[in-house]
Specification:
heterotetramer, A: about 260 residues, mainly alpha, about 75% helix, about 0% strand, C: about 70 residues, 2 helices
């Protein structure tokens, strides 16, 4: 029986192997840069930035809450775009990127929710407050959960990727509607108190660490997306020749020892 | 006959989750041909048929109807095609007549003979106005076969059409195929039984070879 | 530094527990997000390497009989 | 050509309505669910009509949503089992047309009865008088939106064994804007405001759903063919 592991036509544009090797070279630089930027941002925000007049030091949570919220939302769009590219050009690599992006976005959304809740305690006295942003973040978490659980429910991996991509696209169309309607609903019931995460005209000393943290989170997202995609590539391509050679060289076991 | 064949398959390949079911399949089927697809279970007979109907998209290669890729001439191809799968697509709560009326409207084909004549032809004369849940599986099959008599589609794709029908039904199906082919139609079917028809082209999916029965 | 000494940094005027717990959980989540794929990556490579060893062992033991490839479609 | 174009839509609409007519009893189940769950509210909260009036609009809307969600699960399930879904994929017409027919049939057999029964529930939950007309208008439009959005979830989970729970997870976030504006329409009327703006937004959501959901459903059904 002919083993079909290495015919070339299977790898069309953006072959997973090419992605695996090129990103392999980026990883060391990217991880150093991410670590550096995150540490600078954290130290700057925690220790050196002035405290907020009204909220005191608890406002420092903004340095992780806002970047996490940005990345959670941006992550959903990145996932949906990867799914769309996979659907249109039927490219396996972009389906793998989509599958890798889902859990990252979900964890970032959880971080945004958790830090928002902890931040709510000193400012409003309760952990959970139905603030417009936090409610929209909660719905975003459900959207992520939907895409992830749909992908694990299918037997065939191709059908799972296509279904996940369609749901991600439907979600993308709905996110602006959800955000606007939750805002509208929030202002309907609540006179416009301060929004938790609207960046008031912040003092530059407070605002600069926030920008550094946002940059740090974007670098972090790229790093983790690459890591996740690479391991997804290995899982999907474990039967192909190049993965076997890689496994051999990595494990240092010489194939000919068996003869 | 027009210069390009009624149905031509070029270098067709299909992979499911990185395991390749089959590749490099080339076929040319003209009007008047009956092509029987052979192969062990799991060799992809149903998958090939569903690729031909356009329900599945091939990983490589193309399927052409009268020379144009089926993705481009969607309406003409589908209007001239009839597919009967493993299940007869019969709604149990509807009567046989209602089922057929819906199927014909769905396939948008003008019909040759009326629904009731077709039902009497397939031996369901007295059963046409009672709900299908009272009928047997074989009779459900006959409702699906009645579609063959009604439809004017030139391409027939039949997946194991002989399952669950009795001897008389088998003869009826043979005569249908014979008439259809003599009118210049084309049949691609997958079955394990030997067809009692002459010059049936047999195509073995695994060996990719073809021989005349 | 905004705070005069380390002790004030920890207390943060009473908001310390909230701020530090939020940061601790976030950093833990971020570290897990990085570690999970790395561990997964290594485990996959080891698994593929073990597949290879199993195949070689099987081929070595069945050299006399005809080669039955396990990858029948 | 035009005759063929809408024959896909009308063929499937007529067939599904005929199917629903054959099993008339089943049309009553979402309505029964709607009424029964509504009787839970006073038992759970308070029989006192003043407090019930506050929650009446929101409760009726949420329960109508749940009733639609339960019934949307079976939209494609029976067709998938007996093979007629395969035939739907092979119609010469564009796939969104038969899908549109099926969703319209589903709305006529579930959304419309819920809308017609809702004034009765308004009485039971002591909904203020001003709220009845907006309730009927918002439910009529809203349940249609719910049917279209639910169809997307149903198409994505039709080939899965235990798709029901997953369908809820997929579709609930999409339902939230519809509930917000539906309930706001009724509450605006009760508070004496002009209740047309929220209804207009609900109409806009419905228009978007009619335009986009059949495409998503068609894409999702093609995926089930290859599962």
């Amino acid at each position: 029986m002919k083993v079909f592991s290495n015919w070339q036509w299977f790898h069309r544009l953006g072959s997973p192997r090419w992605f695996y090797q090129t990103t392999g070279r980026w990883l060391p630089w990217l991880s150093v840069a991410t670590l550096l930027v995150l540490i600078i941002g954290l130290v700057w925000g925690l220790a050196y930035a002035p405290a907020d007049a009204k909220q005191g030091n608890s406002f420092r949570i903004i340095y992780i809450h806002v970047p996490a919220s940005f990345l959670a939302l941006a992550g959903y769009y990145i996932m949906a775009i990867a799914g769309a590219v996979g659907l249109i050009w039927r490219m396996k690599l972009s389906f793998m990127v989509m599958k890798a992006a889902a859990p990252i976005g979900a964890v970032l959304t959880f971080i945004a929710l958790f830090t928002g809740a902890v931040w709510g305690k000193p400012t409003w006295g309760t952990y959970w407050v139905w603030d417009a942003r936090i409610t929209s973040m909660l719905i975003l978490l459900f959207l992520y959960a939907g895409v992830m659980s749909l992908q694990y429910a299918y037997h065939s991996v191709d059908a799972a990727s296509k279904a996940g991509a369609i749901l991600a696209l439907v979600g993308t169309v709905n996110i602006p509607i959800i955000y606007k309607s939750v805002d509208w609903w929030y202002t309907l019931h609540q006179p416009a108190t301060i929004k938790l995460t609207s960046a008031p005209s912040m003092h530059p000393d407070m605002f600069q660490p926030l920008l550094v943290m946002i940059l740090g989170f974007y670098l972090f997202y790229a790093l983790v997306l690459i890591l996740n995609t690479r391991s997804e590539i290995l899982r999907r391509e474990r039967k192909t020749g190049w993965v076997r050679e890689l496994a051999q060289s990595k494990s240092g076991f010489d194939a000919r020892a068996g003869d | 006959m027009s210069q390009s064949p009624l149905l031509s398959v070029e270098n067709l390949a299909f992979e499911r989750d990185d395991s390749c079911l089959f590749d490099a399949i080339d076929l040319t089927v003209n009007g008047g041909d009956i092509l029987q697809i052979e192969g062990a279970n799991g060799s992809g007979k149903t998958t090939l048929l569903r690729l031909l109907t356009g329900a599945l998209q091939p990983s490589a290669g193309s399927i052409n109807y009268l020379g144009c890729n089926i993705a481009d001439c969607r309406y003409d191809y589908f209007a001239n095609m009839l597919y009967i799968g493993h299940q007869p697509a019969v709604k149990l709560n509807l009567t046989a007549e209602e089922n057929l009326r819906w199927m014909v409207a769905n396939a948008a084909q003008s019909n040759q003979i009326s629904i009731s004549d077709a039902l009497t032809e397939v031996g369901l004369a007295g059963y046409s106005d009672i709900p299908c849940y009272t009928l047997s599986a074989g009779q459900h099959r006959r409702v699906a076969l009645a579609r063959l008599l009604i439809s004017e589609a030139r391409l027939w794709y039949l997946d194991e059409p002989f399952t669950a029908i009795d001897k008389q039904g088998v003869q009826l199906l043979h005569s249908c195929l014979q008439q259809h082919v003599s009118r210049g139609g084309l049949v691609v079917l997958s079955t394990h039984q030997d067809l009692a028809l002459n010059n049936v082209r047999k195509y073995n999916l695994l060996a990719r070879t073809e021989h005349i029965a | 530094m905004y705070f005069n000494n380390l002790e004030q940094l920890m207390l943060m005027g009473g908001h310390g527990p909230y701020v530090w717990s939020a940061f601790a959980v976030t950093i833990a989540a971020l570290v897990w997000l990085v570690l999970a794929p790395i561990i997964n990556h290594r485990a996959l490579l080891k698994d593929v390497a073990r597949d290879l060893q199993r195949e070689q062992a099987r081929q070595a033991s069945t050299r006399s009989q005809p080669d039955i490839s396990e990858e029948s479609i | 050509m035009a005759r063929q174009m809408n024959s896909g839509f009308s063929a499937w609409l007529r067939r599904d309505l005929l199917l629903a007519y054959r099993r008339r009893g089943e049309v009553a189940s979402p309505v029964l669910f709607f009424v029964m769950v509504s009787t839970l509210i006073p038992l759970g909260l308070t029989p006192e009509s003043a407090r019930l009036a506050e929650v009446a609009a929101g409760m009726i809307w949420v329960i109508a949503l749940l009733a639609t969600l339960l019934s949307v699960d079976g939209l494609f399930a029976s067709d998938y089992q007996d093979g007629s879904l395969e035939q739907m994929l092979l119609t010469p017409q564009l796939l969104p047309l038969p899908v549109l027919g099926k969703i319209t049939a589903h709305w006529l057999t579930t959304g419309l009865p819920l809308t017609l029964v809702s004034p009765l529930l308004g009485l039971m939950l002591s909904l203020p008088g001003a709220g009845y007309i907006p309730l009927i208008c918002s439910l009529a439009l809203g349940t249609a939106c719910l049917s279209f959005l639910g169809a997307v979830g149903a198409a994505l989970t039709v080939s899965l064994r235990k798709g029901g729970l997953l369908l809820t997870l997929l579709v609930m976030p999409l339902y939230m804007p519809v509930v917000i504006f539906g309930t706001a329409t009724v509450n605006y009327a009760i508070d004496g405001f002009n209740w047309l703006p929220p209804l207009a937004i609900l109409g806009a959501l419905f228009a978007a759903a009619v335009a986009l959901c059949p495409l998503a459903v068609a894409g999702a059904l093609r995926v089930t063919a290859s599962n």
